[in-house]
Design brief:
Layout lengths: L2 H18 L3 E5 L5 E4 L2 E4 L7 H11 L5 H7 L1 E8 L3 E10 L2 E9 L13 H8 L4 E6 L6 H15 L3 E6 L12 E6 L7 H8 L6 E4 L5 H12 L3 E6 L4 H9 L7 H11 E11 L6 E9 L2 H8 L4 H9 L8 H10 L5 H7 L3 H8 L7
Parallel strand pairs: 7-11, 7-12, 8-9, 8-10, 10-11
Antiparallel strand pairs: 1-2, 1-6, 2-3, 4-5, 5-6, 12-13
Helix pairs in contact: 1-2, 9-10, 12-14, 13-14
């Protein structure tokens, strides 16, 4: 099959997805394509995509520097741009001897807080820090990268900063306004993530975006950057603030946990965890957040290893910059943004949320 023909098959599928407002496209060899709309996976009415077509698409479009990885490891991440359609983050992998591909649509316009139905006040407070680590957490597909991009773009329009991003691949492209952005894509602009991490502090950034907090070396670089006066943005796969803190300490061996507590307490600025909840009206999904602003009290609790007290503080804090998922779900239900049933379904503690909706709250 010619390159143009199998590329055309995929481009037609991607165009349908973009026109439909889908966030993702899933392709499994010898099956029709699937699109994810408002969080739900739906089949596309089309002929099955043959395994040779999926294999040929990846072989033709994976960047040359990644070809050896694809051949040796059977899985790869890369970016794909389809003319007049859009740009996509691609993950290709083998399963049962055939190729599967997942595309994530990278929107060309960076969404605003209003577009995302976000409460901007706690985000703006966190984003105006001069240093520290700001982590955006959540499961895959929960919109954490979009929330991070919206805050960075707000900084872009309001402050004169030099922002260096390290991404694999780039998810949003920023147009310089008051700030200057240098965006480095692994494999295209720099050979490897460790190499990009090692050199970033020599590039005179004010803000560093690290696409994902993936290992100890990355996190230690983020700590070093925070300690030397930089603000670091990154993402992490964790569902709640408590789980996010636990994940951070998993980067360190047991004998170094005490030292890690000191480093994390000194460098962390905040944690933003996010879930997407079905909207009550108009379709789509609405973000619910759990946000921790690392003030002196939080830093002390981290330093002393009293993590069990942090969840209670999230529930009971009167500080608008620190709140639990239940407090945000309560706000969304009362505002008519989501249904009570969905709020309870997505709550990490539905019994407590039920009490909140009856007017019963924990107070400090």
């Amino acid at each position: 099959m010619s390159t143009s023909l199998h590329t055309e098959i995929f481009n037609d599928l991607l165009k349908l997805a973009v026109d439909s407002g889908a966030s993702d496209v899933v392709v499994k060899s010898n099956k029709p394509g699937y699109v994810r709309l408002s969080g739900k996976l739906k089949p596309v009415d089309m002929d099955p995509i043959a395994g040779v077509e999926a294999q040929a698409f990846v072989d033709d479009h994976v960047p040359r520097v990644f070809k050896q990885i694809w051949e040796n490891e059977g899985q790869i991440d890369f970016a794909y741009a389809a003319e007049n359609i859009g740009r996509f983050r691609v993950n290709a992998f083998h399963q049962r001897g055939t190729v599967s591909i997942v595309f994530r649509h990278i929107k060309s316009r960076i969404p605003s807080f209003e577009d995302l139905n976000l409460n901007p006040d706690p985000l703006l407070h966190l984003g105006q820090g001069k240093d520290g680590i700001l982590l955006f957490c959540g499961a895959t597909g929960m919109g954490k990268s979009s929330t991070m991009a919206s805050l960075l773009n707000w900084i872009n329009h309001n402050f004169d900063k030099h922002v260096v991003t390290i991404e694999d691949p780039i998810e949003y492209t920023f147009q310089d306004d008051k700030s200057v952005f240098n965006q480095r894509e692994i494999g295209l602009d720099v050979p490897s993530f460790p190499m990009a991490i090692k050199s970033v502090l020599r590039q005179n950034p004010d803000i560093i975006l690290i696409g994902e907090m993936r290992d100890r070396e990355t996190f230690e670089t983020a700590i070093s950057a925070a300690e030397t006066g930089h603000l670091v943005f990154s993402t992490m796969h964790a569902a709640t603030v408590a789980q996010s803190l636990t994940r951070l300490f998993e980067f360190f061996p047991p004998e170094q946990v005490a030292q890690a507590r000191r480093q994390i307490a000194g460098s962390i600025r905040g944690l933003i965890c996010q879930k997407l909840i079905p909207a009550l009206e108009g379709g789509g999904r609405v973000p619910a957040n759990e946000i921790l602003f690392a003030d002196a009290t939080i830093k002390t609790l981290i330093l002393e290893g009293q993590f069990e007290k942090i969840q209670s503080l999230l529930e009971s804090s009167s500080d608008s910059r620190t709140f639990s998922f239940n407090k945000d779900l309560y706000r969304l239900i009362k505002a008519g943004k989501i249904s009570k049933a969905d709020g309870l379904r997505f709550s990490p503690n539905p019994q407590a949320l039920e009490m909140n909706l009856k007017g019963i709250f924990i107070r400090t």
